[in-house]
């Protein structure tokens, strides 16, 4: 499959809403929001959320097939205490795996963005998400030892991981 990656924002709010709902259905422990809550949101909130991804210094990247289907997304923002943060990571099940290249292409774009704002890229990942943890480790992220409680059922722990840029 061939695809391109590009920044997304307000004009893409409907596509962003659709992929966000897919994200929450696929991995409910990964995004700090329930699918039911996201489904209840009105168009204005989705426009606001999509817009955040294009406001400096934030970034939102989408991988889009040649046919126009959104295959995955990753976003980043700059935290006052941690510097560049990777959030909102999702790749559709049909195109997961290193051989597809979608996750790697999106992460490469976020790394390029993050290198402008700091010397590290940090993320939080649920301890019960071994597939995501394995991807991050393959890309050089290491566990920092910092953990936090995941606030939504089924609860659990999130682990902080960091990549030196």
List keywords for this structure.
alpha+beta; Aminopeptidase; 4-stranded antiparallel beta sheet; 33% helix
Describe this structure in words.
The protein is of the alpha+beta class and 165 residues long. The chain has helices spanning 13-26, 35-40, 43-52, 102-117, 130-138; strands at residues 3-7, 59-65, 70-79, 83-91, 120-126, 142-149, 157-164. It has a single domain (3-164), classed as Aminopeptidase (3-Layer(aba) Sandwich). The chain has a 4-stranded antiparallel beta sheet, with helices on both faces. Helix 1 (13-26) packs across helix 3. The mean pLDDT is 97.
What is the average per-residue confidence, as pLDDT, rounded to a whole number?
97
Structural class: alpha+beta
Euclidean distance between termini CA atoms: 29 Å
Strand order of the largest sheet: 1-2-3-4
SS element count, helices = 5
Radius of gyration: 15 Å
Overall geometry comes to globular
Q: What is the percent of helical residues?
A: 25-40%
N-to-C SSE string, H for helix and E for strand: EHHHEEEHEHEE
* CATH domain class: Alpha Beta
Q: Biggest β-sheet, characterized?
A: 4 strands, antiparallel
CATH architecture: 3-Layer(aba) Sandwich
The CATH H-level superfamily is Gcn5-related N-acetyltransferase (GNAT)
Number of domains: 1
According to CATH, the fold-level topology is Aminopeptidase
Poorly predicted parts: none
Total count of strands: 7
């Amino acid at each position: 499959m061939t695809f391109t990656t590009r920044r997304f924002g307000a004009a893409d709010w409907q596509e962003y809403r659709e992929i966000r709902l897919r994200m929450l259905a696929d991995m409910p422990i990964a995004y700090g929001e329930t699918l039911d809550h996201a489904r209840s949101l009105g168009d204005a909130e989705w426009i606001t959320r999509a817009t955040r991804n294009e406001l400096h210094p934030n970034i939102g990247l989408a991988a889009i097939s040649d046919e126009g289907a959104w295959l995955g997304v990753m976003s980043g923002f700059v935290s006052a205490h941690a510097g560049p943060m990777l959030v909102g990571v999702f790749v559709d099940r049909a195109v997961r795996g290193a051989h597809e290249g979608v996750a790697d292409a999106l992460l490469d774009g976020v790394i390029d963005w993050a290198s402008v704002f700091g010397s590290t890229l940090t993320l939080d990942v649920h301890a019960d998400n071994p597939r995501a943890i394995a991807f991050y480790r393959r890309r050089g992220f290491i566990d920092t030892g910092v953990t936090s409680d995941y606030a939504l059922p089924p609860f659990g722990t999130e682990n902080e991981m960091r990549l030196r840029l």
